[in-house]
Specification:
Length: 130
């Protein structure tokens, strides 16, 4: 008899980027056999991501892809398993430098099943050239 069950499928992926540079990150999503999963947005999945000072911070997110209005980050998915997180250099200039935390959630359109796929540190290094 099992003594515990782990339903947390999330993977820790720490991100280091630079203030004022284009942010372009791709995740490849595959099943256990290495076959890409259809993550097409917005018909199969929707995604959201937040970057915060800490996991318990009462302050608004530094980056919130679902905020009103949403920040300058766009998350898209393709039929061949590619999840792309993209932001312009212009928007990244407005993001403060420092070390934060983030997570990326995926929601299935068909049944509204929500899962955190990735989480970790989100470090923004200071830029020199403006």
């Amino acid at each position: 008899m099992a003594t515990s069950v782990n339903l947390d499928i999330s993977q820790r992926v720490d991100i280091v980027c630079r203030k004022g540079d284009t942010f372009d990150l791709e995740f490849i999503i595959e099943d256990a056999d290495g076959v890409p999963i259809d993550v097409t947005t917005p018909t199969v999945y929707t995604f959201k991501m937040e970057v915060r000072e800490s996991s318990t911070s009462p302050n608004p997110p530094i980056i919130d892809t679902t905020g009103n209005p949403a920040t300058g980050f766009e998350i898209t998915g393709t039929v061949d398993g590619v999840v792309n997180v993209l932001s312009s250099a212009t928007f990244m200039e407005t993001v403060p430098s420092g070390t934060f935390v983030y997570d990326l959630e995926a929601t299935t359109v068909a049944d509204s099943n929500v899962q955190t796929w990735f989480y970790g540190l989100f470090k923004v290094n200071e830029d020199i050239t403006i």
